């Protein structure tokens, strides 16, 4: 089994429930055909670089999975037939891309797990009173 990464753009008129249903459909399709989901990420609603099917934005979703190469044609046929999907791409990952993707996931997980360091002073800093210096007139000669 090879490792693949697929990104699809769903139409922006979908509700959150419809988007989850679309994602569930494709993850189920992958697992039912002997594939294994490695990673999923919702990129959310993004502006498109150019209009696609008269739409200027779309919901982006990434799925990284392992599957047989023959399955990719089936997956892309399902993308093509689904009205909710306006664009998709599936790429095979080589060993360097797999290592990079793993490193990227670990870095994101570490950033998410690290508590945000919020420095709060123990007590409010005392404000120093600035003595008003009397203004002296300079003699003009």
UniProtKB/TrEMBL annotation:
Compositional bias segments (type: Low complexity): 109-129
InterPro entries: Ribosomal_bS6, Ribosomal_bS6_sf, Ribosomal_S6_plastid/chlpt, Transl_elong_EF1B/ribsomal_bS6
Region (Disordered): 109-141
Gene Ontology CC annotation, any one: cytoplasm
Pfam entry (one): Ribosomal_S6
Protein name: Small ribosomal subunit protein bS6
Biased composition (Acidic residues): 130-141
Annotated PANTHER family: MITOCHONDRIAL 28S RIBOSOMAL PROTEIN S6, SMALL RIBOSOMAL SUBUNIT PROTEIN BS6M
